[in-house]
Write a structure and sequence with these properties.
This is NADH-quinone oxidoreductase subunit E. The protein is α+β, with helices and mostly antiparallel strands. It is built from seven helices and four strands. It is 43% helix and 10% strand.
Length: 187
C-alpha cells in the first residue's frame, strides 16, 4: 500500500563542486534547465519554485546572491522569491551538509518513540536540530510530518525515506552514509 506522501525523485545535490553560492549570475546550465520548465507553466513567476530547486541542485543552497540571480532571470521581485524560498522546507537558505536528515515529529512518530531515536542521531552526530556535523556530511532538520505514519517512526536522508526506524537501523544508515562519503573523497 502506498503512502499519502511519495517524494518526487530528483537528482541528488552534488556538494563536491566548488562553492558557487555567492555567484551573482546563473550558469548556462542553470538557465537551460530553468528554460525547460517554462513549457510547464503559464508565466515566469510560476517557475520560481522550480528555478530555486534547480539552482540549489547546482549550488547546494540558496544564498542571497543566488536568489537575486533567479529573481533577475525570471524578472520577478526578490521578495516574492524569498517568500517561496522560506515557505518550502526543502529550499535551504543557509549551507547544509551533503546529507540532509529530515526527522519526522508527527504524532504517530512521537507515539512510536521518535524522541529516543532523535536523541540517538544527535548523540551519534554530535549535533542538534538545525546544525551540521563537523565533517560537513549531515544536517539534521525536524519536520512536522513526512506522511508515512503507518510506518512510523520515519526520516528522510536526502531523497531516501527510511521507515520503521530503530536505534540499530539509524546507526546503520548513518554509518553507511559516512562510509560512502569517505569512499567518494578517496576517489
Amino acid at each position: 500500500m502506498s503512502s499519502v506522501f511519495e517524494p518526487e525523485v530528483v537528482e541528488v545535490m552534488d556538494f563536491s563542486k566548488a562553492d558557487r553560492s555567492t555567484e551573482t549570475q546563473l550558469s548556462a546550465e542553470e538557465k537551460r534547465e530553468i528554460d525547460a520548465e517554462f513549457s510547464h507553466y503559464e508565466d515566469k513567476a510560476s517557475v520560481g519554485l522550480e528555478a530555486l530547486r534547480i539552482v540549489q541542485k547546482h549550488r547546494g543552497w540558496i544564498s542571497d546572491q543566488s536568489l537575486q540571480a533567479v529573481s533577475d532571470y525570471l524578472d520577478i521581485p526578490s521578495a516574492q522569491l524569498e517568500g517561496v524560498a522560506t515557505f518550502f522546507q526543502l529550499i535551504f537558505r543557509q549551507p547544509v551538509g551533503k546529507e540532509v536528515i529530515l526527522f519526522c515529529k508527527s504524532a504517530s512518530c512521537w507515539i512510536m518513540g521518535c524522541a529516543r531515536l532523535q536523541a540517538r542521531i544527535e548523540q551519534k552526530l554530535q549535533i542538534a536540530p538545525g546544525q551540521t556535523s563537523g565533517d560537513g556530511i549531515f544536517t539534521l532538520l525536524e519536520t512536522p510530518c513526512l506522511g508515512d505514519c503507518d510506518k512510523a517512526p520515519v526520516m528522510m536522508v536526502g531523497e531516501e525515506m527510511h521507515r520503521n526506524l530503530t536505534e540499530q537501523s539509524i546507526d546503520e544508515i548513518i554509518d553507511n552514509k559516512k562510509r560512502r562519503h569517505a569512499d567518494e573523497s578517496t576517489d
